[in-house]
Specification:
Elements: H1 2-11, H2 20-29, H3 35-48, H4 52-57, H5 60-67, H6 73-91, H7 99-103, H8 110-121, H9 130-139, H10 147-157, H11 163-176, H12 195-204
Helix pairs in contact: 1-11, 2-3, 2-6, 2-8, 5-6, 9-10, 9-11
The structure holds iron/sulfur cluster.
Iron/sulfur cluster (SF4) binds near residues 177, 191 and 197.
Length: about 200
């Protein structure tokens, strides 16, 4: 796990567990949009409706207006209202802390559920987004075509004590160095371990 440790040291982040409800709703807002848009939308929404019961009672039109910067706001508003209602009515206002029940909520897939477990409950999970999927496959930790399969291979390959750091570390590494189109392999601290890099070098000979 030398490579993962190098990456955690350089790109990992110390973070504190956050309110699971806000993590859940913010992660739904973040689907298919940029971080800056997510921040605008979540600030507007929680500024007006700070708690689950407030969001559950809010009008869908009003939620749509507040979260518009995040895009896909019709679908997201419907899901956010319904998720809030279920959490209030079925779970007494507490977000469930397990993958099975989280996946039953509308608009919640494995990545969103994993982020809630890690960031909201400090529980081990490996949420896989495009960055985690791409970097893991380049490094040779996974050999898959889908984030779901990558998650499965990573959970089999990586010791559980590191799971919570994987998402944040690989996302930051993927945004700064291992870019999608032109990875900065020349400044990469783990290039000597990278399958993609080794194959590229062989191809250049
Ligand atoms: Fe990504 Fe290049 Fe580093 Fe491999 S060597 S992990 S492709 S930046």
């Amino acid at each position: 796990m030398r490579v993962l440790k190098i990456l955690i040291d350089k790109f990992g982040e110390d973070w504190k567990t956050k309110d699971p409800f806000k993590v859940l709703i913010t992660t739904i807002l973040s689907q298919r949009t940029k971080d800056a848009n997510t921040r605008k939308a979540s600030k507007a929404l929680f500024g007006e409706y700070p708690k689950g019961e407030d969001v559950a009672k809010a009008g869908t039109d009003d939620i749509e207006k507040l979260i518009r910067p995040a895009g896909f706001y019709h679908v997201k508003a419907r899901n956010i209202k319904e998720v809030s209602r279920i959490i209030v009515e079925k779970y007494g206002g507490k977000v469930p802390d397990n993958m099975k029940e989280l996946l039953e909520l509308p608009g919640v897939g494995r990545k969103t559920a994993g982020i809630v477990l890690v960031a909201g409950f400090d529980k081990p999970a490996i949420p896989v987004d495009v960055h985690v999927h791409r970097v893991s496959n380049r490094l040779g930790w996974a050999d898959t075509k889908t984030p779901e399969k990558t998650e499965q291979e990573l959970t089999e390959a990586l010791p559980k004590k590191y799971w919570k750091d994987v998402n944040l570390t690989l996302v930051r590494f993927g945004q700064k160095v291992c870019l999608s189109r032109k990875p900065k392999c020349g400044e990469c601290p783990v290039s000597s371990y990278c399958h993609y890099y080794k194959n590229k070098k062989v191809g250049e000979k």
